Amino acid sequence: MLIVGGISSCSDDPSTSPDNLYDLEVELVWDAAINMDIWIIEPTGKGSGHGDPGDTAYNTGNNVCGFGANCSAEACSDLACNTLERIYINSGEALPESTEPFHQYQIGISNWSTETTNMILFIRTISESRTFHCTVDGPRVSYVADITFPAGTIAEIESFTANYCQE
């Protein structure tokens, strides 16, 4: 189980994410009462994030109010306090690597506040998974990884991970 500031993600629990149910799952948790987001730019150029779906990616909602004891339920408009953000692509729906406008799926995060925040980003594909433990200043919008299908390979964006994440 992943924990940030007492908030957990069950992504690493096989009973909550059966093999072959998703081509891609991305989850984000953080430890402050601020607005952060995960998003995906698909090979078609369409994005999924902020609660909006893409062409193949589905988004479970937008947590604008954050995590922890200082999270204000009144500030929440979509997902409740202490609810992780999650984007997924159902099994068999991921687009293969293409030439235009983008080659693969691009995963990113946004910290919309001026507060430096600890976060955990979990990425799972059909062939591998990665967990990024990062401390992110804000405001910041950053690419974290590229995902290539049909193999489901994850390539981290080293300019982000080297500066903000630890193993």
Summed up, the helix count is 1
Strand content: 35-45%
> How would you sum up the global shape?
globular
Largest sheet: 6 strands, antiparallel
* Spatial ordering of strands, largest sheet: 6-7-3-9-10-13
- H/E order of the elements? EEEEEEEEEEEEHE
Number of strands: 13
Which regions are unreliable across 5 or more consecutive residues at pLDDT < 50? 10-17
Estimate the mean pLDDT confidence.
Answer: 87
- What percent of the residues sit in helical stretches (DSSP H or I)? under 10%
What is Rg? 15 Å
Structural class based on helices, strands and sheet pairing: mainly beta
Task: Explain what the structure shows.
With 167 residues, the chain is mainly beta. It has one helix spanning 158-164; strands at residues 2-4, 7-9, 22-30, 36-41, 47-49, 57-59, 85-90, 105-111, 117-125, 129-136, 140-148, 153-156, 165-166. The chain has one domain (2-166). It is globular and about 45 Å long.
